[in-house]
Amino acid sequence: KQDIGNVSLTVRGNFTYSNNKILAADEANSAYPYIRDTGYRVNQAKGLIALGLFKDYDDIRNSPQQTEWGTVMPGDIKYKDVNGDGDIDPEDISPIKYSNIPRITYGFSGNLSWRNLDFSFLFSGVAKVSKYYSNFGVTEIGLVGFYTGYHLNAWTAERYNSGRKIEYPALSANTTTSMTANDFFVMDRSFLRLKNIELGYTLPKLLLEKIKIQKLRIYVSGNNLLTFKKMKLNSIDPEQSSETAYPVTKMVSFGANVTF
Fold first, then answer.
1. What is the mean pLDDT of residues 117-139?
2. C-alpha span between 172 and 158 (Å, rounded)
3. 3-state secondary structure of 133
4. Coil, strand or helix: which one is 179?
5. What is the 3-state secondary structure (H, E, C) of 68-104?
6. What is the pTM assigned to this prediction?
7. Which of 109, 126, 138, 192 could pair covalently with 228 via S-S, beta carbons 3.0-4.6 A apart?
8. Up-side HSE of residue 214: CA atoms within 13 Å toward CB?
9. Contact call for residues 55 and 74 (beta carbons, < 8 A)
10. 79 and 48 Cβ atoms separated by less than 8 Å
């Protein structure tokens, strides 16, 4: 806290770093340690590693076979053969990014007052946190008829050949190999959000004496007005743990505090 003349400034902050590791789990042994939970974080995200999209049938034929989850078509996600056996199968599912438990949680706030004016703000955020998304608003079949911006830039042969922007695999009316858990759908949930901001003004006492009011403060307040995030989708709120959860809403309010 710092006072300079009529100005009073207070700033607060918090930072938490949390890490964990599963030392032992009741699970089968495997020739590939990355398949096991032992040694990794609780709720560690796992899936196939995406290498891009298949450009044509020759690209499919010249790549490791990945028919474990269905027929592969041009525009589908191409996966990495992690164990090098020539096939993409469950033994290639490996840890991806972080878990859905934030490793870093932080926030900072401040209060500023000058004469009859007061101003306050509160930011909060998380970092080093990931989640696999597969439901409404993520894939094209998660909710029939609901599409997001990156679905508009899905792969097509014409779009690929013309060098246009591609943000999503080829669209389909059915589940495809692209929808298997992979690092395209394991998204970074890190965000920093302006949770609250408020500006107030307390009327001078001389103006209030005639109406027998001891104190009158008017204010304007905003909640969740600004969010900085890394998630590629705007249809999902990174603060919510599920893609089907109702998003945190923005709100602006006006009010008055009266003391008689």
1. 91
2. 16
3. coil
4. helix
5. HHCCCCCCCEEECCCCCCCECCHHHCEEEEEECCCCE
6. 0.84
7. 192
8. 2
9. yes
10. yes
């706030």: which residue's tokens?
A: 109
Q: How far apart are CA 77 and CA 72, in angstroms?
A: 9
| Pair 81, 64: CB distance under 8 Å | yes
Contact 169, 154 (CB under 8 A): yes
Two structure tokens written together for 238 = 């990174």
| Residue position matching structure tokens 């096939």 | 87
- pLDDT in the model for residue 20: 92
Give the pLDDT mean for 81-110.
94
User: If you average pLDDT over residues 1-13, what whole number do you get?
Assistant: 80
Query: What confidence tens digit (pLDDT) does each residue in 154-183 have?
Result: 999 999 999 999 999 999 888 899 999 999
Q: What percent of the chain has pLDDT over 70?
A: 97
Tens of pLDDT, residues 102-111: 999 999 999 9
Find all residues with CB under 8 Å of 73, minimum gap 6, and list them: 54, 60, 170, 176
* Sheet strands (E) in 5-76: 7-17, 44-47, 50-53
What is residue 3's predicted lDDT score, i.e. its pLDDT? 64
> Chain-wide mean pLDDT for the chain?
90
Reported in sequence order, the residue ranges of the chain that DSSP labels E, i.e. its strands, are 2-4, 7-17, 44-47, 50-53, 77-79, 94-99, 104-114, 117-127, 130-132, 186-188, 191-202, 215-229, 251-259
Give pairs for 32-38: CB < 8 Å, separation 24+: 32/82, 32/83, 32/91, 34/82, 34/94, 34/95, 35/90, 35/91, 35/93, 35/94
Q: Mean pLDDT lowest for which of 85-94, 128-137, 218-227?
A: 128-137
User: What span, in angstroms and rounded, lies between the C-alpha atoms of 45 and 144?
Assistant: 27
